[in-house]
Write a structure and sequence with these properties.
The chain is an alpha+beta fold and 177 residues long. It folds into two domains: 39 residues, no CATH class; 120 residues, Alpha-Beta Plaits (2-Layer Sandwich), CATH 3.30.70.
Length: 177
């Protein structure tokens, strides 16, 4: 599925194939949401002593040797599924083919959104994981116990995970009226 931002980025990529237009796509989509008049309240003020709803995940994945094409295909399929059915507010995936690394950024409104994503997307996540290994997983925000438990394997093991609590901030997806 393509949107107006993807079409513009594709045109620029044809003209300048060596330039990474991923960040421009993120900003373009945020601006588009703003023009559509969507006003999403993502943050709930300072998270001192309590849970902050907003969670940002950064997943760094090492792509298995010889699996780059299969990895890309699985990611495209997974992202298309969550675009249509997932609760994420934003998903962006960047691939460094030379280093065989991929970076996935996902923004969630709250713990329930994360848990819903895992429930809906499990088959897609498993397919992607056939072609890579999690090298590092960063969580920005304060996840609840059920999300923390989901970051561990059934035997209680976990991959390299860091959690950075949010101090303050805001997300503006629409201009004030």
């Amino acid at each position: 599925m393509s949107d107006a931002v993807a079409e513009v980025v594709a045109q620029w990529q044809r003209e300048l194939p060596d330039v990474d237009f991923g960040p421009i796509a993120v900003v373009g989509r945020l601006m588009r949401l703003s023009r559509l008049g969507l006003d999403l309240q993502l943050t709930r003020g300072p998270s001192v002593g309590g849970m902050n709803g907003t969670l940002l995940f950064h997943n760094t994945m090492r792509i298995r040797e010889g699996h780059l094409d299969e990895f890309r295909a699985a990611i495209l399929k997974a992202v298309e599924f969550v675009r249509e059915h997932g609760p994420q507010l934003m998903v962006e995936v960047f691939v460094d083919a030379d280093a065989m690394l991929a970076h996935s950024f996902q923004l969630y409104a709250d713990d329930e959104s994360v848990l819903r994503h895992w429930e809906l997307s499990d088959p897609y996540i498993r397919e992607v994981m056939e072609h890579c290994a999690v090298e590092r997983f960063e969580v920005f925000g304060r996840p609840g116990e059920r999300v923390l438990a989901g970051l561990r394997t059934p035997t209680g093991e976990s991959f390299a995970t860091t959690i950075t609590p949010r101090l303050t901030g805001f997300t503006r997806l629409a201009t004030p009226r």
